[in-house]
Amino acid sequence: MLSKEIEKELLKLQDKNYKDFQSKIISNIESNTIIGIRTPILRNYAKKLIKEGNYESFLEDLPHFYFEENQLHAFIISEISDQNECLNYLEKFLPFVDNWATCDQLTPKTFKKNKKELVKHIKNWIHSKETYTIRFGIKMLMQYFLDNEFQPDYLNIVANINSNEYYVNMMRAWFFATALAKQYEVTLKYIEDNKLDKWTHNKTIQKAIESYRITKEQKDYLKQLKIKE
C-alpha cells in the first residue's frame, strides 16, 4: 500500500533535533505525531512522487497520522498543475488540516491561472466552520487579491469574519497589515472606524508597524490608532 511505503520513507528521514524544534512551534498537535523532517527534504520528496505519477492513492487515504504526511500532502497538492484536479484534492484535504504550518504551506501554483474562479472558492472557505479552512481562504485572498485584482469588498469579507480562534484572527491581522502595505488609503478606514474587533485591530497595527513596506509617517499615525486596554 502506497501510504505505508511513504510512511516508511518518511521515518527514514527523521531528524530528532528538528522534531524537538517543531514540537515547540506547532504546539497544538501531539508531539508523537511529529517525525521531524526539514521542509526542503519533504518538498523534494513530493516532487519525486509527482514526477513518478505515484501519489493518487496517498491523497485519497485520509486522515493521516503524522504531521509530515500532512505536509507532504500539502506539497503534492501545491504542485498539481491541473486546476480541477488540484481543487478536487484540496477540498478533500482541507477538513483534515489541523495546524498553521500545513495550512500556510499549502500554496497551489495553479491558482495563478484562473483567479476569477478562485474567488468563488475563497468565499466558501471563509464561510466554513473549520478553523484552518477559514485561515486558508483568508491567506489565498491575501496572496492573490490585494494587488491588480483588488476590490474594496474583499476587505469587508475578512472584516466580517466573527471568530474566537487565535489562528483565524492572526491571519485576519496579517491580511489587514498586508492590505495596509498595498492598499493603504481604503484599508486605513477599517482601522480609523474600528471595524475590527480589538484584538485583531491592535495586532494589525503591530504587524503593520513591523513591516518594511509601511512608511515611518504611516507607522506613526497607526500607533495613535491603537485601542488601549
Key phrases:
229 residues, mainly alpha, Serine Threonine Protein Phosphatase 5, Tetratricopeptide repeat, 2 domains, 65% helix
Question: In words, what does this structure look like?
Answer:
This protein is mainly alpha-helical and 229 residues long. It has two domains: 111 residues, no CATH class; 116 residues, Serine Threonine Protein Phosphatase 5, Tetratricopeptide repeat. 65% of the residues lie in helices and 0% in strands. The chain has 14 helices and no strands. It is globular and about 60 Å long. The mean pLDDT is 94.
| Average predicted confidence as pLDDT | 94
SSE-based structural type: mainly alpha
Radius of gyration: 19 Å
User: Would you state the CATH class of the largest domain?
Assistant: Mainly Alpha
**DSSP helical segment count:** 14
Oligomer: single chain
- Uncertain regions: pLDDT < 50 for 5+ in a row? none
Could you say what the CATH architecture of the largest domain is? Alpha Horseshoe
β content, as a range?
Answer: under 5%
Shape type: globular
CA(first)-CA(last) distance: 56 Å
CATH topology of the largest domain: Serine Threonine Protein Phosphatase 5, Tetratricopeptide repeat
| Residues in helix, % | 55-70%
- Count of discrete structural domains: 2
- Order of helix and strand elements from N to C terminus: HHHHHHHHHHHHHH
Number of strands: 0
